[in-house]
Amino acid sequence: MRALQIAVVVSAALVVALVNAASTGVDMARHHVRVAPFEPLVWELTSWLGLVVALPGLIAADSVISSQRPLGLRIGMVVALAAIFFGVHLATMIGLREVMIPNLPTRPYHDPYYEPLWEVLEDIGLPVVTHTATQEEQLDLTVTSVPLNAWVVDEKIVNMMRCLSRLIAGGVPQRHPRLRFVMVESGIGWIAGMLRFMDHWWEDHHKWMQPTLQEPPSVYFKQQFWATFEDDRPGVVTRHLLNPDHLMWGSDYPHSEGTFPHSKERIEQDFADIPEAETRRLVRDNAAEFYGLSLT
User: What single-letter DSSP state applies at residue 72?
Assistant: First the structure.
């Protein structure tokens, strides 16, 4: 089995990780395990070692709070693939249900370097999550030349546009049709317009563009991408230009850009003219179905 072959490779990486074993980089949270999102290679390897060390405790905790089982594993700099492979398999062992990758890696995701990773994730069936503000380069929080409101647009929308367009145009979904991607906290109101532009460009130029896409970009999005949103009336209005069954509302509690503590009011406004059954799917059922959560 390919998974076992890859797991063997990680042993060498873990030896390097021993150099810095004092810092595990593992932080158990309610919904996912975060693993050193913006650290150099040695810290990344250490983080995976930390996950190994913490595994018995995570399993014990999971047995006690199975109804609160964490949903995902966040990985940082995608530079130590062997360690990442091992971490992905550990994630499945303790019942995690998704893997988070940086939205803007320093090495583009269409690079052949990542093919073994895509193959493993596709074989295992773990969804691949991209989240706002998870680029590999350290966030510069000291920038003063860009107004805060514009900086937030870059982080929450523009960088996710780049992530989505590069994944699709790079042919990753086409080469791995069983991969499922989830775009988190970037909203959905902008997606329809961007996909239409990409489709138009594909219609005019797909015969010579490389890599060659057999279908328009929007087809891959509708088949293999899910997306979350919060305060997003434009996204609700354009939902049928996407795939309504792949859209998932979230409050983003407790962040200020989310809807808490006025989530109910926000939903009532954004879905005022939407049929109740459809509202229920976007607000609740889609997410429960995707993650296998019980609603009883």
Answer: E
Model confidence over 122-154: pLDDT tens digits? 998 889 999 998 887 765 666 667 888 888 898
Q: How many domains does the chain have?
A: 1
For residue 192, give Cα distances in angstroms to 188, 196, 219, 232: 8, 6, 12, 13
Structural domain boundaries, residue 206: 139-296
Segment 217-265, tens digit of pLDDT = 999 999 999 999 999 999 999 999 999 999 999 999 888 888 999 999 9
Answer whether 162's CB lies under 8 Å from 154's CB. no
What is the SS3 assignment for 212? coil
Which tokens belong to 197? 């532009």
Q: Name, in order, each residue with C-beta under 8 angstroms of 124's C-beta and a sequence gap of 6 or more.
A: 3, 88, 89, 92
Residue 60 lies in a domain: no
Residue 287, both tokens:
């997410």
Q: Is residue 269 part of a domain?
A: yes
Q: How far apart are the C-alpha atoms of 46 and 12, rounded to whole Å?
A: 12
The Cα 128–Cα 73 span in angstroms is 10
Query: What sections of the chain are H helices per DSSP?
Result: 2-17, 41-64, 81-93, 115-124, 148-153, 159-169, 172-175, 191-205, 217-224, 233-237, 263-270, 276-280, 286-291
CATH of the domain at 264: 3.20.20.140
Residue 282 lies in a domain: yes
- Backbone phi, psi, residue 225, to 5°: -115, 140
Residue 81 lies in a domain: no
